[in-house]
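Help needed: design a sequence for this.
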């Protein structure tokens, strides 16, 4: 059996390792644009120079898995076409290309490896007294602003979003905003209409000076599924059945951010369980057993506020908020363990 995995993030790496571990007769090939596994949840640390966010795929994948570095142009009809003109045949394929960012002109995206590298160089070159503006009031924006502010206290850092930290309950939101304020981050609750000439223009009409403007909004997925003729939702995510198979071709599994799984949001914590379930489904099919449906189960939300603090909030299984939560060093430790656990799961293929 030939299995091709397109994308080597959390979902793709875990799926490849789990299949190689549980279905030893399978010949597994991973196709990725770069030879590294990139921890997207650490890109804000990469920008600030506080962590390394890339690990060679050779050290992440099990022995026997083939790695091909390249970009995929199309997937379908039992084959994958690469940009270099080569082709890879499959009996089953896993689409795991994740999500991406579509930055506003004049900004640098922080949610992609290339963008993070650009932002890291630009931040390192910024002289003391400069101003950094982070656009995006969600987890990516909060963690980026906090990390930069802690690593570069000689800079003025602000975060701009229509309602910063509004995905948390009132009490947790207050803790997030207080934590940002303690790090010296200015919080601006407003939308952005334009970034040009070192100026960030807000919906309210205010113009803010900015020496470096970072885009911290995840705003779509790669168009590979749509380009390949697979059915997608309005956001471009591949439509899947209850077992995470493309509704057009049950030989293609779609997992992670690029899959339109009902009730799922963008998060590596959801990508890994999906990948594990899809890999297990392939094993069941190969053994002649009936596949089982996937169920989304949420546990909580958390954001780091620099290297020593964080805020976490427990959620119900459907992602609605609970009042219970943790903050400070305890939450930071939990977030760090979760991040390491995600990488460990991807490396070993033991995610659940």
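Sure. Designed sequence:
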């Amino acid at each position: 059996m030939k299995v091709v995995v397109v994308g080597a993030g959390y979902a793709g790496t875990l799926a490849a390792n789990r299949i190689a571990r549980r279905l030893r007769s399978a010949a597994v090939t991973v196709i990725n644009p770069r030879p590294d596994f990139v921890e997207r949840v650490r890109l804000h640390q990469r920008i600030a120079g506080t962590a390394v966010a890339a690990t060679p795929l050779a050290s992440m994948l099990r022995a026997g898995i083939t790695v091909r570095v390249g970009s995929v142009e199309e997937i379908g009809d039992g084959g994958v076409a690469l940009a270099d003109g080569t082709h890879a045949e499959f009996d089953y394929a896993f689409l795991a290309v994740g999500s991406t960012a579509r930055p506003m002109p004049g900004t640098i995206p922080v949610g992609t490896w290339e963008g993070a590298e650009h932002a890291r160089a630009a931040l390192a070159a910024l002289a003391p007294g400069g101003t950094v503006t982070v656009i995006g009031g969600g987890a990516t924006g909060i963690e980026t602003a906090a990390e930069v502010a802690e690593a570069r206290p000689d800079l003025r850092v602000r975060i701009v979003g229509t309602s910063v930290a509004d995905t948390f309950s009132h009490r947790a939101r207050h803790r997030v905003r207080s934590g940002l304020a303690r790090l010296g981050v200015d919080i601006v609750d407003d939308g952005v209409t334009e970034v040009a000439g070192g100026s960030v223009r807000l919906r309210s009409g205010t113009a803010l000076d900015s020496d470096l403007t970072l885009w911290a909004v995840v705003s779509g997925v790669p168009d590979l599924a749509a380009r390949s003729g697979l059915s997608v939702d309005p956001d471009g995510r591949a439509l899947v059945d209850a077992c995470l198979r493309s509704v057009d071709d049950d030989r293609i599994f779609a997992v992670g951010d690029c899959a339109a799984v009902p009730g799922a949001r963008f998060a590596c914590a959801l990508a890994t369980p999906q990948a594990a379930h899809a890999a297990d489904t392939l094993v069941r099919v190969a053994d002649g057993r009936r596949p089982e449906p996937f169920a989304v189960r949420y546990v909580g939300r958390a954001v780091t506020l620099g290297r020593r603090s964080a805020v976490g909030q427990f959620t119900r299984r459907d992602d609605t908020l609970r009042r219970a939560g943790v903050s400070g060093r305890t939450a930071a430790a939990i977030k760090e363990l979760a991040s390491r656990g995600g990488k460990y799961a991807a490396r070993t293929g033991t995610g659940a």
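The chain has a mean pLDDT of 92.
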